[in-house]
Amino acid sequence: MRKTNLLITLVATLTLSMAALTACTVAEASTHAATTEAITTEAMTTAGEISHAPSNRLEDILQRGYIEVATEPYFAPNEFIDPTIAGDDNIVGSDIELAKFIANDLGVELRLKPMDFTSVLGSMTSGKFDMAISALAYTPSRAETMNLSKGYYYGSDDPQKSYGILIRKEDADKIKTLEDLADKTVAAQNGSLQEMFVREQIPAYKEYNQVSSTNDAFLMVQTGRADAMAAALKMAELYMESNPECGLMILPDFYFTVDLDTQGTRIGLPLGEDELTDRVNEIIDKVLEQDLYNQWYEEYKEYAKKLGLES
Questions:
Q1: N or C: more exposed end of the chain, with fewer CB within 10 A?
Q2: pLDDT single digits (tens) 218-241
Q3: 12 in a domain, yes or no?
Q4: For the residues of 173-194, what is the DSSP string, one character each?
Q5: What is the pTM of this model?
């Protein structure tokens, strides 16, 4: 009888132990399932975030909410510094109005990045900033290292009369043609279209001086450190009007030959960013349809004159 009771007790104990073990296993399985589900959900969320990451620069700009624009603020009236304004709003000009228009059209904040012209070009080839708005002209070398927008400003009713030579008035009898520059020093802004003209269209010169800004080239000719400079004639005219005692003049009856198919001031963008380039071109179309850029240019031409800016 005691054996029977003992057997019954043993069976009951074993049954309870099995039940406890089963409950524990079920609980562990439930916990493991919940953990697995959480990990899977997190992975799916992460995957979803990756799938919505910007696939190009335009998407990136729209997601982050601002656009970074490189410019050299020493080329009035396109971009220049108003010394009467304090803070970050002192960079003004027709190109700056274009930058604002683009930012507004995209619905983002504009962040200007002022620097020298060589750095402006470098920031596009490296992709450091979103675009360069700095009176850029088309050159074959630029087209190989960055995207270029369509033209938004042409500067003259006759593009073939847009670029020429600036000399000192006192040298008018000495410098009448390009051939007279054979024993002279010529200056132009480094990386500019004018530099290309000097290298490709002036048959000979004694020395060529690269400068970081057009203003430096004006001053070199004025002070006798250079005898002539290649210049955008609109800007040269503004410089002389703003500085009537500068003693400079435009070489008469000479213009650099330009490629009409590649004329027009353009916006530089990182190479391969075609979506952003297409969107910028659409915005430029709006500017051209309303003739806004020409209005901005004339407005800031007068603005620069009143400030007495040299460039």
A1: N
A2: 999 999 999 999 999 988 998 999
A3: no
A4: TT-SSGGGGTTSEEEEETTSHH
A5: 0.71
